[in-house]
What we know:
By secondary structure, the chain is of the alpha+beta class.
Amino acid sequence: MQNNAKIIAENKEMFYKMLLYRIESWVSAEKDVLANLCNIAALLYDNIDDINWAGFYLMKNGELVLGPFGGKAACTRIKIGKGVCGTTARDRITYVVPNVHEFEGHIACDSASNSEIVVPIIKDDVLYGVLDIDSPNFNRFDEVDKLYLEKLIEKLNKYIDWNEVAKIN
Length: 169
């Protein structure tokens, strides 16, 4: 049985270390990519404080398509270069956006979102999608979030066959 208790830590770095450990314990024990992405989205959504959405957009036919997530219903398709997710996919870098209303071309899937972090999912120089996390708070995300969410993608690259994800219809 996996541990579903909320992660409580004395600081943000310890929180992320515990979260990464928990996520690795889930994905290392399961081979189904969809099950893993669903559980990762749930773990992020349930454990990261002050967020209103956490999930994945996956590359399909040259655009980002909604994948597993936690939160309100979201935009289904995002063109490369559009919004924070599409810009992250185009530029292949993490974007930490303190105020989404000031981000040119921001796509408002949830009007309650005020800040956002989006991390590209890249393995062997292939873009497979993005990890997107939104918050109703301005300035919610910082360099610590960026560092550890990028480490999360590195960890997922060890366990997830992104080519199998691309086959999911």
